[in-house]
Amino acid sequence: MKLVKAAVVIVIMLGVAALLAWQFMIKDQIDLARVATPYGAKMVCSCRFIAERPMESCLADFTEDVSAVSFAEEENAIRATVLGGVVSARAVYQEGLGCTLVDADS
What we know:
By secondary structure, the chain is of the alpha+beta class. Helix content is about 50%, strand content about 25%. A four-stranded antiparallel sheet has the order 1-2-3-4, covered by helices on one side. It starts with a helix and ends with a strand.
């Protein structure tokens, strides 16, 4: 019986620890990803298709570390993903209009 009570207490403590980790660490990272991916997709799209610069040059423009964000060039578009694709955004270049954000998943 003592073993069952100890197991229940341990499970409850692990649950509380997981909730605290979510609230104070992971949640902020997801919120940051929801801002960084659309911004990054639009900025890299403009850099690649309007300024016609190479991808490496475009990534060097960011003042913050964007190494967690993956940028993929598609036909006249840039897709930015983070957290294994959980959060993503897509910006498309259209002649005469420039780059616009057309898809932001979160």
